[in-house]
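Note on ligand handling. Small-molecule inputs were canonicalized before submission; formal charges were left as drawn, and no protonation-state enumeration was performed. Where a ligand contained multiple stereocentres, the stereochemistry in the source SMILES was retained. For zinc ion, this procedure yielded the string shown in the input block below.
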Amino acid sequence: MSELSLAYIFHQQQLLVDHNFQLPRVEKLASDLSFHSDDQVIARDLLDNEPIPEGLELIPIRQLLPLWSTKQFEQASRAIQLLEWRRNHKFCSHCGHATEAHASEYAMICPACGYHQYPRVQPCVITVITRGEDEILLAKNARNTRSNMYGLIAGFVEVGETLEEAVRRETLEEVGIRVKNVQYLASQPWPFPSNLMIAFKAEYASGELCLQEEEISDAQFFKFDQLPEIPFKGSIAHAMIMHATEGTTVADDTREWL
Ligand SMILES: [Zn+2]
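Structure output:
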């Protein structure tokens, strides 16, 4: 008789939880993804026609973030990313044969040609930019039409680029200004879908604000004491904005900072 496992059961970007937003415990199946660090935690996808067990409901993951501890969020984040990776690597990208999960590593292996596919992380830079002693640049994402939230400049690192070059390029592309004194702050794994957010601070150097309209619908330098709506606590953007405007210190461990 096996013990029940704590289960992350996903359906699209939603997770099964009970009415107290806690995870269910279930019998482990051979096809479940187990966490190598802890066999009593599993992850799987809810099948399309599978009924939702009584007492449980599907909740969008983003709604759960503010309710969970950083540790819970990180485990959920790992579960989402590993499941998505497994779903997207059912076949060998080299020869097209069906793959098999490695017994002890996070790897999908091709039995025909031996090719190993590992989970990939996408590095993404995010930058808090200040001007003078009391102004911060905040930008509104053009795709966000539902709220009036202002966030930070962010974008993916391109092949062959350093992180600092990515910071300077993204800032110039999105808002038309040049920055100086680019400095690393912290990092946070972010599972939408499989990013590693790498946080920097920088200072305004030159140029007038000129927006890339497909990406940014508005950007302004705001006085520290007159901020608009900003990202929720628990996100790295929130911690970065607090660091810039209120001088909260950056912890050695990002987990303690958020
Ligand atoms: Zn192959």
